[in-house]
Prior knowledge:
Strand content: under 5%
Helix content: over 70%
Order of helices and strands: HHHHHH
Number of domains: 1
Distance between the termini: 50 Å
Number of helices: 6
Number of strands: 0
Radius of gyration: 18 Å
Shape: elongated
Amino acid sequence: MTTRFPFFIVTIMMVVAVPSFAQVDIKEDVDYIQREWGSTKMDLVKSYMNLQEPQASEFWKMYNAYEIERKALGNTRLHLLNDYAMHIESLSPEKANEIALATLKNNEAYQKLYTKYYKKAKKILGPVAAAKFIQAENALQTAINHETQLAIPFIGQMEKKKKG
């Protein structure tokens, strides 16, 4: 039987998150989203991984360290989205470049994080279960990215709406 993550939870979390992008200070919203999403996400990962002792204890220690680093990257991503939202109607070439480069750097940091923790998980669980962990993390992040992209306007879209 194939285990699937309930991606509707991701959608709900993004619906809660998207209105906050228009705010200048989003720390409270970021903290709320990370706190609520973190516990739900951990439950999903626990169910999906279905680990037994003695591996489970060691894995969850590693996972908690991973989550601290992932949340920092997620916080950066939310701040980038907020910056984009604050400048969407008057996006200068300089600001567009700044946001694009910071977003690419953030995406690269996610890939490095996956690689780092795949190696750690592989030592604890072996390559198959470690790949399962990274596959789950990648699937969740892809779903979040997809929902986020659907929720925010593309560059130039706001100008077209004003003219039309």
